[in-house]
Specification:
Length: 202
Amino acid sequence: MSETTSVLDLEEAGAVLAAEAARFASFGWMRGTSGNLSVVLSRTPLQLAVTASGRDKGELTSADVVLTDASGAALGAGRPSAEAALHARVAALTGAGAVVHVHTVASVAMGHRKPGGVAFRDLEMLKGLGHGTHEVAVTLPVIENSQDMVVLGDRLEAALSPGMPAVVVAGHGLYVWGADPREARHRTEVVEWLLELELTRG
Ligand SMILES: CSC[C@@H](O)[C@@H](O)C(=O)COP(=O)(O)O
Ligand SMILES: [Zn+2]
């Protein structure tokens, strides 16, 4: 039996993801056809609505979404994101209900500068990641890129860091997750803010 964890059907999920993608694209975080988004529609079995591959993410419609299984394989029409398997892996590992992937300049620059990960502490903005106080220290992991989503998923799993719902993929971009698309977006904005701040520190 399927346990539904989302109130959204596939078309409604497509509309939500299209709106989220338009917003990220307006920030310049999904240039070209870069970036992708997903929302969990069912937890058992794990099924996700994932943005279709190769589209301009600033011009998505509610139809530009593909239902996938836990391996990222399409269950219906369309070709899902090339990174659909990583979205499914993040959802399975973390229990997240939505995953965001953006190609921000700050995430790639910081991945080059701090390949071992980026430490943050004593910042009010960390409360935007669910912490109750600024008096906390967290690390944003950086993992090596791969075109193999199983390899990339293994690296992400090994790098997961407490209190940090995000990972930088070196030379590539940023993955962030949350309970739903809205929380995932807020967290993406917070993590990007942290990265931009760190860049100003030289
Ligand atoms: C310039 S797009 C690079 C892609 O390989 C990938 O990294 C990406 O973010 C978008 O892939 P997509 O298959 O459209 O979801
Ligand atoms: Zn990408």
